[in-house]
Amino acid sequence: MNGLLVSLQDAVVQGVLWGIMVLGVYITYKLLDIADLTVDGSFALGGCVCAVMVLNRGMDPWAALIVAAAPGMVAGAVTGFLHTVFEIPAILAGILTQIGLWSINLRIMGGKSNVPLLKTDTIFSRIIGWTGINKQVASLLLGVGVAIVMIAFLYWFFGTEIGSAMRATGNNEAMIRAQGVNTNWTKLLALTISNGLVGLSGGLVCQSQKYADIGMGTGAIVIGLAAIVIGDVLMGRLRSFGSKLTSAVVGSVIYFVIRAVVLRMGMNANDMKLLSAVIVAVALCVPVVVRKWRLKKAYTEGGE
Question: What does the pLDDT read at residue 161?
Answer without folding.
Answer: 93
